[in-house]
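Hi there. Long-time user, first ticket. I'm pasting a complex I've been working with (about 487 residues overall). I'd like to know whether the download I got is complete or cut off, because the file seemed smaller than I expected. Thanks.
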Amino acid sequence: MIEIQNVSTSFDSPNGRFTAVDDVSLHIKRGTIQGIIGFSGAGKSTLLRNINLLERPTSGRVLVDGVDLLTLSDAELRTKRHDIGMIFQHFNLLNNLTAQENVELSLKFAGVGKAERRRRAAETLEIVDLSDKAGAYPAKLSGGQKQRVAIARALATEPKVLLCDEPTSAVDPRTTASVLQYLADVNAEFGITIVVVTHEMNVIKAIAENVAVMEEGRVVEQFDLSELQRPGFHPATQSGRYLISDEIQLDRSAHATAASEGLLNV
Amino acid sequence: MFDRILEVLPEIGVAMGQTLTMLLVAIPLAVLLGTPLGVLLYTIGPNGLKHRPKLHRILDGLVNLIRSFPFLILLIAIIPVTRFIVGTTIGTAAVIVPLTINAIPYFARFVEQNLSQLGGGVVEAARSMGASRSQIVRDVLIVEAKPGLVSSITIMTVSFISYSAMAGLVGGGGIGDFAIRYGYYRYETPLMITAIVLMILLVTLVQLGGSYIARRLDKRL
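Hi, the file is complete. Here it is re-exported in full:
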């Protein structure tokens, strides 16, 4: 479904050229949920934005449903984006539009007529159980509800792919479970291929079938989540092990603490 | 004192009418023409949807140039332009031209500022939904900036009530000019105070109305 081939993405910054994504290849099967995990700055959000070309790769190829996105014209790319929904850490809803109007927006951009927009937006809000909040403005919604409106907005155009950029990083643990449940449901019900970028391993464990671990712009390892059940399985990289362990690890020796605070010359 | 005020009451009425005419022509024109200019400044600016460094520098400089003129000097400096546009260089119509020319870049700056304060999140979301640049401007940026734009129109209107007082220089009239002519040149303090009270009322009404509309449009709270 999604074929990322030798993709690199670099930016020119005041400190020189910075490579956010470094020669990544990834194959994501139709109807699966792919996790991408890594620490801040590992390049996972940039890689996600490479899939719908919000960020154009410097080199490599991105194929979605067999179409090489980098060969498309601007207009063709915009059309293709109606097939690729996206949700964000901070929801990115329009504050001055109601839940219903926010959902209608993606349909409007897709060229859907007014009456049809209203009908389909209402339908999609029902999928995320927010029909009763259709007339509410985002300020009146909880974080979880806002993310569900964002999910509805992304689903309204009936995309084949849903890209999720840290979808649960701004909500509390219980809301995280509810948001992930809706994502799992739409995957099961509509067969939508989902890509979830996160730094939270419990999110990956809960929802993904396969995970790619990123470090300094590269995918350093990739494994199926079912592997975790296999006795004797250990991630090959330190990032992988740390993320899997799901625990915050501190070095308790005073020397290390003082050094990290810059109090000691070491 | 009151007799005197009553005596010139018709003239006060005419002056108020002239002030309102200036505002009702110049402000809508500034919004109509300043909005696209402001959108363009934002769009081709460093954080815009389509950065055009050279064109941005030219437009940015032009806006600064016009905004640098003290209004009194602009009023006189563009007399040939005024003659070309309205066919006269005196009277209320002649003041509207420099007022509008001053107000367009003034409002364009407000638009640019309001748009750049919105943050990239909604724009990124719109791009991911396959929106074109014009759709992003119309259906996302303007929608989110609307309460801020109404506040900006309010501030601009209040400023231009003050600018319109200089209209007397080219015989443009208006309530500010009335205060200067009767109060300052003829030492008729009660008439000056009357005119000033009227201006305070006008400013208060504009500010209250503007704040009310902005609050009604703002759904962030």
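A couple of notes from our side: Chain A touches chain B at residues 52, 54, 77-82, 84-86, 88, 90, 92-97, 105-106, 108-110, 137-139, 150, 153-154, 157, 163 (CB under 8 Å). Chain A has a mean pLDDT of 91.
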